[in-house]
């Protein structure tokens, strides 16, 4: 399983902070993002930052492993 975390407005649009996605052999970050974007299109309009296992990533061709943790979030600012 892949544990997927959502933060900020992305989580608000989805209505939760965590989902589990079945791992498939050869799965890439792009595959996971496409699957979730199809399910939660309004939330994924906001996604601009991703992390895999605690590391910021941009490479959509990054292979995922079983038990990976993936984070999707939008840019945010604070004060």
What does this protein structure show overall?
- This protein is of the alpha+beta class and 79 residues long.
- The protein has a single domain (2-73), classed as Roll (Ubiquitin-like (UB roll)).
- 28% of the residues lie in helices and 27% in strands.
- The chain is built from three helices and five strands.
- It has helices at 8-14, 29-39, 41-44; strands at residues 2-6, 18-21, 49-52, 55-57, 69-73.
- A hairpin with a 2-residue loop joins strand 3 and strand 4 (55-57).
- The model has no long low-confidence stretch (mean pLDDT 94).
Brief overview, please?
With 79 residues, this protein is an alpha+beta fold.
Q: Report the span from N to C terminus.
A: 36 Å
Which fold name corresponds to the CATH topology?
Answer: Ubiquitin-like (UB roll)
**In CATH, what is the homologous superfamily?**
Beta-grasp domain
Specify the helix fraction band: 25-40%
List the helices and strands and how they pair.
Blueprint: E1 2-6, H1 8-14, E2 18-21, H2 29-39, H3 41-44, E3 49-52, E4 55-57, E5 69-73
Parallel strand pairs: 1-5
Antiparallel strand pairs: 1-2, 3-4, 3-5
List keywords for this structure.
single chain, about 80 residues, alpha+beta, Ubiquitin-like (UB roll), 5-stranded mixed beta sheet, 3 helices, 5 strands, about 30% helix, about 25% strand, globular
């Amino acid at each position: 399983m892949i544990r997927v975390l959502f933060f900020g407005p992305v989580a608000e649009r989805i209505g939760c902070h965590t989902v589990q996605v079945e791992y498939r052999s050869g799965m890439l970050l792009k595959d996971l993002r496409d699957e979730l974007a199809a399910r939660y299109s309004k939330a994924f309009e906001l996604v601009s930052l991703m992390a895999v296992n605690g590391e910021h990533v941009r490479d959509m061709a990054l292979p995922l492993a079983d038990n990976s943790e993936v984070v999707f979030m939008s840019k945010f600012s604070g004060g």
